[in-house]
Specification:
Length: 202
Amino acid sequence: MNEELIYHQQLVPHSRTELVAVLRDQLSQHRFEHVLRVEQTAIKLAQQNNVNLEKASIAGLVHDYAKQRPDQDFITVIKDKQMDPELLNYGNAIWHGIVGAELIKTELGIWDEDILNAVRHHTTGATIMSKLEQVIYMADYIEPGRNFAGVQQARQVTNQSLQAGVSFQTKQTLQYLIGQNKAIYPKTIATYNAWVAVNGGN
Ligand code: DGI
Ligand code: FE
Ligand code: FE
């Protein structure tokens, strides 16, 4: 059964229904349906891990808000806000979360840093992640529409322990990216070192 939360906390100047309508307008049908599944998965993980449900709903809905924006929109924000110039060596995969969070502030009126950090870090993770950030990182990976090899194990591990899920995904994603000869964004490596590598580098 789907949770349709009523927002009470003034984290967003819209009702959930209005926010959903904005997302339907911004995203393809395929991406929109992904976002709704991430929201529901995030709410479930939030319930299991004592995380604010309203934040989980909002962050789940908006995490891919900027995914279908043209590259130039991100490049403009990176330059205007003097974000890390290293970002310019990457593309939409890295930008839609980290840079997309800036668009979410001005365009959706969401200024809660906990929600914004969950969006920023949903692709690369981060060395230190709040429970909400962990919930969104995992919900994006295990939502019921995902069907890559290993997703069942990812769901089981995450249901046992949110942190173990973060570690599992971090390792799998890095292995996958290396297998594809992709450039690894330095924060992705930092996430791996913090969440997967054995203490002290031994
Ligand atoms: O936006 P989604 O498709 O729902 O999922 P996502 O935001 O987790 O991932 C977007 C893509 O980013 C996915 O294909 C994996 C890729 N990715 C994650 N970390 C890195 C990365 N790509 C590069 N090149 N470097 C990274 O460090
Ligand atoms: Fe994403
Ligand atoms: Fe996503």
